[in-house]
Request: fold
Amino acid sequence: MNDDELNEKYKEWNRKTKEIIKKYPERGEFKTTWGEKTKRLYTPLDVKDYSRIGFPGEYPFTRGVQPTMYRGKLWTMRQYAGFGNALESNKRYKYLLEQGQSGLSVAFDLPTQIGYDSDDPHSLGEIGKVGVAIDSLSDMEILFDGIPLDKVSTSMTINSTASILLAMYMVVGEKQGVSREKLRGTIQNDILKEYIARGTYIYPPRPSMRIITNIFEFCSKEMPLWNTISISGYHIREAGADAVQEVAFTLADGIEYVKAAVEAGLNPNTFGKRLSFFFASHNDFFEEIAKFRAARRMWAKIMKEQFGVTVPSAMRLKFHTQTSGSTLTAQQPDNNITRVTLQALAAVLGGTQSLHTNSRDEALALPTEESVRIALRTQQIIAYESGVSKTVDPLAGSYYVESLTDSIEKRAFDYIDKIEKMGGMVKAIEAGYVQQEISNRAYDYQKAIESKKQIVVGVNKFTSEEEAPKSTLKIGDTAEKEQIKKLRILKKTRDNEKVTNALKRLEESAKSDENIMYPIVDAVKVYATVGEISNVMRKVFGEYKESIML
Amino acid sequence: MIKVMIAKPGLDGHDRGAKVVARALRDAGMEVIYTGIRQTPEQIVQSAVDEDVDILGISILSGAHMKLIPRILDLLKSKGSNMPVFVGGIIPKEDAEKLKALGVAEVYGPGAPTSEIAEQVKRFVEHSST
Amino acid sequence: MSNTRVREDEILEGMKSHDRRSLAKMLSLCEKAPDMANEILDKLSKKTSHVIGITGSPGVGKSTLISTILDKMNGKKIGIVVVDPSSPFTGGALLGDRVRMQSHATDKNFFIRSFANKGALGGLSPSIYEACDAFEAFGMDDVIIETVGVGQSEVDVANIADTVVVVLSPDNGDEVQMLKAGLMEIADLFVINKSDNPRSQILLSRLRAVTSGNKEVPIYLTNAVTGEGVERLLDDLDDRFFQISSNGILVQKRKKRLLHHAQSIVRREIDHLIQNLEINGRNLKEIRNQLIEELCKKDDQNN
Ligand SMILES: Nc1nc2c(ncn2[C@@H]2O[C@H](COP(=O)(O)OP(=O)(O)OP(=O)(O)O)[C@@H](O)[C@H]2O)c(=O)[nH]1
Ligand SMILES: [Mg+2]
Reply:
């Protein structure tokens, strides 16, 4: 059947169907989460050109970044859990390593992430809460004590203080006798999404971009195996963005970073290989699959066409996925297992490189061990029982999925063009444009739930009377006091003259345009604290104050 | 005209809920001050008193609510204010009961309808001004 | 009625003893019952504060600049009034300037207060005169007023401020265009903010070209985020206040302010009368609604 014949048949079918609908109306209007009309039926007419889709492992990578995908190696099932102080975390890492895990994942508490020492008034009630508290090199030495840093790869969720924590990691390595060029791991280091969605910024965007560029440069010279950034859409999505916005804003962030790297003299053909991404997986099954495929294709095009990259491996968008915390409900928490399953399946069908599945009770409190296990088992069932990993990109060629992929790509590129016209992502953030777009979508979504246009099972339909389960959230006051005491002792016993001098050097460096990483390393070595180093930079760079966009 | 402050104590940046509520209250015809994230109890209370708002809403997701909210209530009292206070966030039931016993007007969990919040806010303000 | 008398007396006494909470209540009274507010204010002695108006297009950095000004003050007592727009549809408002100054919320010397403009044109709140008087009665050294910043011609600030600071930024392409909308005439000094943006130099030379020939209006380059250039601005603001206090300009300005304050009271009275006006037993709102209904009907028939 050629296209014309098909078109005729399709029209004919539509005519007949409309007659039927007169008698038996449909349930309502159907739309994508970004508000585009969903057609009743998709046909080959919606998938015109196979060259847009291509082959896995080849440009434009719609079908995956490797030729064999999960036939070769399953995605990495990366669950992170367990916080506390440096000593407890160290024990846990050693246990995980004994169990055969080769990668460590470090979460820091909020004061560490925002550059406050544990004795700062801002830190009240937050010390050691969502991760480990690091005040100085001394804590970092405890955290990695007895862990051979040449054997492990370490992923650190750290952004505005990434430069300091990276410097500490490097110094701990050197004290172990491991030279910097052998260290492997990742820092999140994605500051732009902090302004947009996650909130752990310190300085205004421009100096923050300068610090990031300094890190890129430093690592390319000193730590070539280190992944210097993980560009994250997850938090953007969780703040209320739709699938198109998630892709658009994440890739626009990516463009800004690559631009900065190129300006610093790095070659995108090598730098491109060091980039990785992090996305959310939400409820709308096909949209999410299409989103991952579209993102991959778009990034390949951006790297090739905008940055002139010629090495294919520097065009590949590799990504980690986490299921969406914001879709989990406090009501009827076991339903969340099903939500997580669908979201995880979408991530796998979208070709993720690694996956974190959320636990059913996360909307209530810190997850129990049993819930964490179920979450992991969910991934294992998908991997070993569902059969979806037997072939590469099984949904390619689905008229609907390909059409959604095209649509997301087109709309996301429209956003990216608009941001480029505004002068890039930093400008768009300063103007509050991105925040406003997300806030609008979040508000629309809330309204849709309240008007029951959007059904959430157990929340606005199919509700049942139930006793809310008890929380397991507890704040450890003793850990807080101990950490503060330790810090006070450190400040008395270290060589404070050296600290003062190192901080003075750092201040001069911050004011000039030299690479700030070197004086940070020096300051860290003499046990200057995260708070002290951040305060020097606060003084020079100023602090970011958010634009309130409702 | 109701004047309301939405405040966010603690260090976490999850302000989606706070913003949605602030916007809904504005659209319900109220004058809304949103403090932004990372506010200390002292900042929140002094601002609320200086602005002479009719009611204070606190959004908190970091889990430090049992530390921060009682402190806010104490500070309000010490400044001679009896403005009503409501709370939104992930608050376990037993904690919500405790907070209400301390004088919090209402505790809203995630997904509480904003239209309902707006209605109740109006009622809390009416009650407190009589 | 007797109840409110008590409260008024309390506020009056509180204002006299510099009680912060009374100032907060006083300012609410300015908004909700300006007549009563004026009555109390009449009974209080007032300091002649330096009233500084800060105006300029949306997002040029007015609020950030004020926050940085506060960073650099030591010992001075300052009242800050920030005005944001009310929605013409719901009457609701997001008062968003304060968030940039939150680091000063607990400072004893500063008092920040947000107002909605309640639909008033000109960039200010209808109760701005009363609010300004209240701050002076409280004994503030300076009163800083930030206008709405929606980009319409916000020239009313010249009626109340002793010194008008017009803030510009190189981010806005049409800044010099803006000046034609009346801002040129009211500027006592210009601030080009966001000096970290290289285009600020271009804006500076363009502004010089536009202002040359007119009265001598000084221009300052600032970076409100880091505070660069702000100290010089502050020194000159103080100098200027000293100057206008001694050369008679301040007296003129104050006369003008009084006149406009009186006008605003008269306007309020007239508005009140109109609101309560009845024609054939029906008030204005009913008449308006009926008119709209009939117009809509006609429209329906035409379609
Ligand atoms: N780079 C840079 N950004 C600045 C500077 N001053 C302010 N900003 C940024 O400009 C944006 C707007 O600042 P505001 O202080 O809110 O501007 P505003 O004039 O008060 O805005 P409205 O009240 O909405 O009219 C914010 O993102 C500030 O961080 C500056 O000197 N340099
Ligand atoms: Mg402002």
